[in-house]
Amino acid sequence: MSTRFPVTCEVAFDYLVDPRNRPAWQSSLKRVDEVDGAPRVGQTWVDVTRPGLRPRMETTELERPHRWTERGTWRGYAATLTLTFTEVADGCDVDAEVVITGPFVSLLRQVAPRAVRRDLRHAASMLSP
């Protein structure tokens, strides 16, 4: 799934990978807590979701401005989100891949990609000049 951003890969990358920005564009987040410094491999934080879940998050890959991966864990569940950034004539395309593991995840695997795409479209609109 790809979302067009009306800015350079660098601008989109820097905005999307910083956990402090996430509550502004990610619909499921109430806030983030315990952000461990600047974006980098090994950075950790806690997502505080609107339903009350508190997954522990970690940046596992960061190749600015091309690729970024986070992994979140909560109880017996794990979710990995990878964003890939490609420069295009009028901005950049952001491709998202979601992988979810744990018990009873078939519904989550269907819903999560749509939610991620909706959130990315919202982020793109926020970065529109």
List the helices and strands and how they pair.
Blueprint: E1 2-5, H1 9-17, H2 22-25, E2 29-33, E3 44-49, E4 56-63, E5 67-74, E6 77-88, E7 91-101, H3 106-126
Antiparallel strand pairs: 1-7, 2-3, 3-4, 4-5, 5-6, 6-7
Features:
129 residues; alpha+beta; Alpha-D-Glucose-1,6-Bisphosphate, Chain A, domain 4; 3 helices; globular
Strand content: 35-45%
Q: Please state how the strands of the largest beta sheet are arranged side by side.
A: 1-7-6-5-4-3-2
Tell me the CATH topology.
Answer: Alpha-D-Glucose-1,6-Bisphosphate, Chain A, domain 4
Q: How many DSSP helices?
A: 3
Order of helices and strands: EHHEEEEEEH
Oligomer: single chain
Q: Summarize the biggest pleated sheet.
A: 7 strands, antiparallel
What is the highest CATH level, the class? Alpha Beta
Low-confidence stretches: none
CATH architecture: 2-Layer Sandwich
End-to-end CA span: 23 Å
Based on Cα principal axes, name the global outline.
globular
